[in-house]
Amino acid sequence: MHFKKLIYLLLLLSFSLAYMEWGGGNHSFVFEIQLKVFTNRADFISNFTHPVILVGLIGQVILGIAIFRSHLRFGWILTAMILLGIPILLILMSALFSSNLKMILSTLPFLGLAIWTLTQNNH
Questions:
Q1: Which residues pair with 29 in a beta bridge?
Q2: In the chain, how many domains are there?
Q3: Which of 6, 13, 90, 97 has an alpha carbon within 20 to 30 A of 105's alpha carbon?
């Protein structure tokens, strides 16, 4: 696998493994929430109207295309990282406010990979 494609795959995986905790003892990884969104048939369409879900989905689709396509301009990759970065930064902000170390640590792989990808871009 081409090195850039591997990085794009790692960005997708690190986004999916971001961890959240919220009131009432609730907790979940992003991939678990996505699975619920896709399997909840009763509210299937309305699930995608939430902006955070929509931007994350669009970012994942763009990175998925980048993995399977031979070349995609870096502007698309940057767009995908920004779109995925929005929910990641919201998770990080919530984690910082609540001093939740698990949530903070779960965002670092995506943020580190995104920053590394930006610094390695030769375009």
A1: 19
A2: 1
A3: 6
Identify whether 77 is part of a domain: yes
The identity of residue 123, as a single letter, is H
User: What is the domain range of residue 71?
Assistant: 3-20+27-118
The answer as to whether 123 is a domain residue is: no
CA distances 83 to 3, 24, 27, 60, 61, Å, are 22, 28, 22, 9, 11
Q: Is residue 105 part of a domain?
A: yes
The reported pTM is 0.87
Separation of CA 89 from chain center: 10
Give mean pLDDT, residues 15-36. Answer: 90
Question: Tell me: the pLDDT tens digits for 66-119?
Answer: 999 878 899 999 999 999 999 999 999 999 999 999 999 999 999 999 999 999
